[in-house]
Amino acid sequence: MQQFFKWTAWAMETPKPYGLFHLLFVLIGGTIAVLGAFFLRKTNDKQNRIVLLTVGLFLIITEIYKQLFYFYAVHDKSYPLWIFPFQLCSVPMYLCIFCAICKNEKINSWLYNFMFAFNLLGGAISFAEPSGLNHPYITLTLHAYIWHMSLVFLGLYLFFSKRACNSWKDYFKGLAVFGSCAVVAQIINISLHKLGKINMFYISPYYVNPIAVFHDWYATIGWVGNMFLFLFALILGGAIIYYFAFMCRTLYAKRKTKKQLS
């Protein structure tokens, strides 16, 4: 198995942020994500489960490859704890499978609104600041780019199919899920920190937040201030995405109603 992963460790020149590879992928991948999400907007319940299951299985299979690639090809049979799959952008891997299996749409709606507001945000931020996506290996770079574009597709699909962002109150469903995930992430950080460097959601009390700006502020405001500021920034970003989309949906509905009456 180690030979296989070393064989797939095809080297490449690490793409530069806003270089040709980055911009072409955002343009082409973004177009496919938007059109695909719009095309699937009329899925029924069964079809929706197939879409979620497909996305979830794709994320899980590619994540398993990534984990094994780091273990065998990069770290020579040593597991780097920092790649443990419970970052903000990792959570949809679990939620898609859960929603595909769970038939209670009231429960699913909480997860849909979370994936729309926060994972769409995470995917968009990753392409705005792509240093974490770029690697010296072809497979890792493709994994990172396709993974985060999948989150953009997923968020847009849930919006276009009217499974998320249907009420101004529903943002708080997504916010509750986000808060719960952040608590779980911090429990993981504290429980496993003695085993190696782990910083889920970048809120660990033991390691500096690697995200630009927050990394620079860490020394000044400490981990508690940095954690709350970082979480607030994510909450605010999710709210901006959610309520901008909700405003667009409301205006479109009013315009459509006005046309029907005239």
Tell me what you see in this structure.
- The protein is mainly α and 262 residues long.
- The protein has one domain (2-261).
- The protein is built from eight helices and no strands.
- The chain has helices at residues 2-7, 20-39, 45-74, 91-101, 105-128, 138-160, 171-192, 214-261.
Gross geometry: globular
User: What proportion of the residues is helical, as a percent range?
Assistant: over 70%
Low-pLDDT parts are none
Task: Quickly count the helices.
Answer: 8
Q: If you compute it from the alpha carbons, what radius of gyration comes out, rounded to the nearest whole angstrom?
A: 19 Å
Beta-strand residue fraction = under 5%
What's the story with the biggest beta sheet?
none
Q: What are the secondary-structure elements, in order, as H or E?
A: HHHHHHHH
Structural class of the helices, strands and pairings? mainly alpha
Strand runs, count: 0
**Rounded mean pLDDT score:** 95
Number of domains: 1
Distance N to C terminus? 67 Å
Overview in brief:
This protein has 262 residues and is an all-alpha fold. The protein has helices at residues 2-7, 20-39, 45-74, 91-101, 105-128, 138-160, 171-192, 214-261. The mean pLDDT is 95.
Please render the helix and strand layout as text.
Layout: H1 2-7, H2 20-39, H3 45-74, H4 91-101, H5 105-128, H6 138-160, H7 171-192, H8 214-261
Features:
262 residues, mainly alpha, 70% helix, globular
